[in-house]
Fold:
Amino acid sequence: MKTVLTYGTFDLLHLGHIKMLNRLSDLGDRLIVGVSTDEFNNTKGKKSLYSFEERAQIVEAIKGVHKVIPENSWDQKLDDIKKFNVDIFGIGDDWRGKFDFLETQCEVVYLERTPDISTTKLKKSLSSINSEHIQKLKTGLDSVLDVVRAIEQN
Ligand code: C2G
Structure:
């Protein structure tokens, strides 16, 4: 039984997260994911839209994920590796080199991040949608509905 371990915030789950988790899952027989708690996110300078509980449930629902644990601190990795008898620690290559010290306990792999997608970008796009945009969309949809109704009546 080869166990893989990773950590992350996984806010606004997107294809970059999914591809990473699937690739990590393919490296072994079970994948354990440490999801950053809201408090730990603060130390990472991150504010999630979804709470820890919500992010944990979402990650838990992913097929290749065997187990979700809370990530409360930078220092828990070695204990988790021993506790879960981890064979491979994996994470995105944006962290390359940062976790080499774990090599005393298990294999460490850095996998390429998916380009051009991030929670930050998603948040930015969502925040640019304002009530004016929504009104324009609604007006446009109303016009389409008028046309559909006119066609139906003929
Ligand atoms: N990721 C990716 N491609 C993206 C975005 C993220 O492959 N476009 C990967 C990251 O490299 C990471 C995982 O998805 O392996 C989770 O990313 P984040 O939620 O941003 O987590 P992060 O802030 O990197 O937290 O102790 C480690 C930290 O908790 C890692």
The two ends are 67 Å apart (CA to CA). The chain has two domains: 3-117, 121-153. The chain has a mean pLDDT of 96.
